[in-house]
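Sequence, please.
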């Protein structure tokens, strides 16, 4: 059987796509290349959210071409969608697939393997595309699964390339979500992460119009063997009605990842973000009211072209005041074709310095959140053995990395664990129940 390997960059939506692509190839008689076996096909699924993302993709292509000169090298994903000609001239590339063309991977591979010149299969988005779900597929080696219910984005943030490379927002129909999750349950997973490019827009493109709140209400009805977590969700996508439904759902994980980007009202306006710092602060208070121990993660975009020193201080001060569990900090990176790309940029050293300050703040906030959880009992999904003999590792419902002693047969079980001490980057504790 021919072997393949997929290398994935970027978000959880890309991870879902890669798992679907792997299943598609497997159904056509391919197999994942075992460790130490040279693959016949290597597919690189790229991201283009920052200039660094593009650079990582190019480096991966060059490395693969050097290490596996006999393999057929294909590139897909958001960088391939944005700049197909740029990708096609990289060494060793045989084919470039756009995001829409991912669905035809197996067919295109069969047609293209015998060609010698790079093939470009990249189409644009017309705005009327339906949601194309992948068949339910396993994530080998994982106890939790990422499940895409929404794709694309209809916003026009001035710095963001995503709407151009993913198309407009589109959603999986609620009935199909429920049917697919029954298949997920049959596969034995104990956590599902509902993902989307803009999860808060879920259902707005459907007829009749739906919402994430309505989907949660529907999913609460069956008794599932797994718990449910959201991936990143825009601030305005979290409504009081959604929080109320989630708080009444026993299987919901108290974890919210919000793209704040800036704590300065003027910068948010320049970014095209539809909220202000006061609204965001009020939202966090509301989340905290329903979920006092929730993990709150934030995306921060440092060094936006209009960001002054006082704007940056407003962002730092706002984040300082919030019960944040962690930060994802990104230096501003101009994306070709976006409104912000034409604005005068700040000095690179200044952008890097601001990002460094925010990352340091993020580390401190993470430590404070971990310390607030000491002595509490949280549900932990056991993922497998920890490095220490006789210990297990897992993820708590509120997104804490946890280790505790126990037998390997507890893998893929949800256990209540008392969090007793901080041990490096993780919390150590002891199970207060057995499966």
């Amino acid at each position: 059987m021919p072997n393949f390997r997929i290398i994935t960059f970027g978000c959880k939506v890309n991870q879902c796509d890669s798992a679907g692509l792997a299943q598609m190839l497997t159904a056509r008689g391919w197999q994942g290349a075992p460790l130490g076996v040279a693959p016949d096909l290597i597919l690189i699924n790229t991201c283009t959210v920052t200039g660094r993302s593009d650079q990582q993709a190019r480096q991966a292509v060059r490395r693969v071409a050097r290490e596996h000169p006999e393999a057929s090298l294909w590139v897909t994903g958001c960088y391939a969608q944005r700049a197909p000609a740029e990708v096609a001239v990289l060494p060793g590339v045989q084919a470039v697939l756009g995001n829409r063309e991912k669905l035809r991977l197996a067919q295109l591979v069969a047609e293209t393997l015998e060609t010698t010149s790079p093939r470009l299969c990249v189409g644009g988005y017309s705005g009327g595309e339906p949601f194309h779900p992948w068949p339910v597929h396993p994530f080998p080696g994982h106890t939790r699964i990422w499940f895409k219910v929404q794709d694309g984005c209809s916003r026009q943030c001035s710095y963001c390339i995503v709407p151009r490379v993913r198309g407009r927002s589109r959603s999986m129909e609620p009935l199909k979500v429920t049917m697919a999750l029954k298949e997920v349950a049959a596969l034995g997973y104990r956590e599902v992460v509902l993902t989307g490019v803009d999860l808060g827009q879920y259902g707005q493109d459907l007829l009749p119009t739906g919402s994430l709140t309505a989907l949660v209400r529907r999913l609460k009805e069956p008794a599932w063997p797994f718990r449910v977590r959201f991936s990143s969700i825009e601030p305005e996508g979290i409504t009081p009605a959604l929080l109320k439904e989630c708080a009444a759902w026993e299987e919901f994980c108290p974890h919210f990842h919000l793209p704040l980007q800036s704590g300065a009202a003027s910068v948010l306006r320049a970014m095209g973000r539809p909220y202000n710092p006061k609204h965001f602060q009020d939202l966090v208070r509301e989340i905290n009211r329903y979920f006092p121990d929730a993990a709150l993660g934030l995306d921060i975009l440092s060094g936006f072209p209009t960001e002054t020193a006082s704007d940056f201080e407003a962002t730092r001060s706002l984040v300082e005041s919030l019960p944040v569990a962690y930060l994802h900090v990104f230096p501003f990176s101009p994306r070709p074709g976006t409104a912000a790309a034409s604005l005068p940029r700040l000095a690179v050293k200044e952008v890097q310095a601001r990002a460094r300050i925010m990352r340091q703040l993020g580390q401190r906030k993470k430590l404070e959140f971990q310390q607030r959880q000491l002595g509490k009992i949280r549900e932990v999904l056991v993922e497998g053995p920890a490095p220490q003999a006789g210990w297990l590792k897992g993820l708590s419902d509120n997104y804490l990395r946890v280790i505790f002693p126990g037998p390997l047969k507890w893998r893929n079980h949800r256990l209540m664990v008392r969090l007793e001490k901080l041990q490096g980057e993780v919390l150590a504790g002891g199970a207060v129940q057995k499966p």
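The longest helix spans residues 348-372.
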